[in-house]
Amino acid sequence: MTLNETSQPVELLVSVSRQAPGTLGAQIEDQLRRAIRDGGLRPGGQLPSTRDLARQLGISRRIAVDAYAQLAAEGYLRLRQGARPRVSDAGAVAPGPAAGAARQQPPPRFDFRPSVPDVSAFPRQAWQRCLRDAVTSISDHDLGYGDPRGVGALRAALADYLGRVRGAVADLELVVVTSGYSQALGLVCRVLAARGARRIALEDPCNPEQGLIAARAGLEPVPVPVDGGGLRVDALARSAADAVVVTPAHQHPCGVVLSPERRTALLAWLRERGAVAIEDDYDAEFRYDRAAVGALQGLDPDRVVYAGSASKTLAPALRLGWLVLPPALLDGVVEEKVLADQGSARIEQLAFAGFLARGELDRHLRRMRGRYRARRDALVDALAAELPDAAVDGIAAGLHLTVRLPAGDDAEAIRAEARRRRIEFNTMRDYRDGAVPPTLLLGYAQLSEPAIRAGVRELAGAVRAVRGS
Q1: Exposed e or buried b for every residue in 144-171, given b needs 16+ CB within 10 A?
Q2: Of the CATH numbers 3.90.1170.50, 3.40.50.720, 3.30.70.20, 3.90.1150.10, which one belongs to the domain with range 110-118+363-468?
Q3: Is-above-0.85 flag for pTM?
Q4: Tell me, what's the pLDDT at 211?
């Protein structure tokens, strides 16, 4: 026997009053329209039957029937004999608050935004095993606040891994675990400011968040230009900076590597100036044409702070970062870490220690290097076919391409046209103020090779549309 679903009661937060302005039916209509527009009643959501609504409100059924009929005529409701009244799909596009409209924006068809790894490849089973073992084995001591530098097992595993893979000089006593790179940078900047530093040099271009973090810590950010050889150390020497943030293995966003000559010059400047460098080694594990260059920190661990994280290698959701500090900065950074959060999540630290010790990160990186290299090659080939006048800058590394367009192109107009076609990417304007060459930043980590080729065809269509206009 088929159940008439209108016989099942459904409660609805609607009220009417004979003393209020407007008829009872108009009051019902107004409240339901508002609830649908504001998202309180979602498309497909059930409403009470007319009989049930009349019972709840103490009104005649005819008023409820007429109110539902009016809302159905306007497209807000879906009515069908023997079925529960429902909110129609059209209600989703009714005018509403800007926040509601933003939530309903469809995702991009092709997401070329840089710096995001393929999180769908996160090794869930391996991580689950490590997390389960961490929960089982964690000591009572480590369930407390513990050492603010982090769990000893993870600091030891990181010291071993960074020395083996990145050539860093990493004593576990000098390793501090952080909640990602942003916190790590903020901790060091606050210590430098407290010890008298006033200006910090930042690569130009670079992630804008770095300048905001430094300024909040009390340091004045000073831009220093980057060219094909990396950071311009001659310009750095004229900056009167007390510290510098560098990405020597793979500059972000330009994609170049700091040349050997400039590495030597940078280390000489640090010693002469008595300054400190913060080395952001954000994606050095992903080099596709040769072995990655070793960490700058390995050449002068007393002058270079090494900063890394799991955000590009595994997933940003882990919120795991780390610092290898010069001895002179250790106590200050630990004090700042205590004030910030008393230490990073300890169960996850133990899980990551096991993940490293079992070789799971090495296995994951080997898989992802092959996958990312194939995707990078697909993107380079697609650009050569669809946009032959575009040039790819930088080394074969990382998770994005830096794509230089002809001088007459308008990168922001191209981005606006691409967005209309539901294609997302960054431009150099996101990383540098003022006049910049027309340059696109195209990430390839999140897209399959067929999707990359299709996306570049669509992107080329957007470029031609802007050029034609």
Answers
A1: eebebbbbbbbbbbbbebbbebbbbbbe
A2: 3.90.1150.10
A3: no
A4: 96
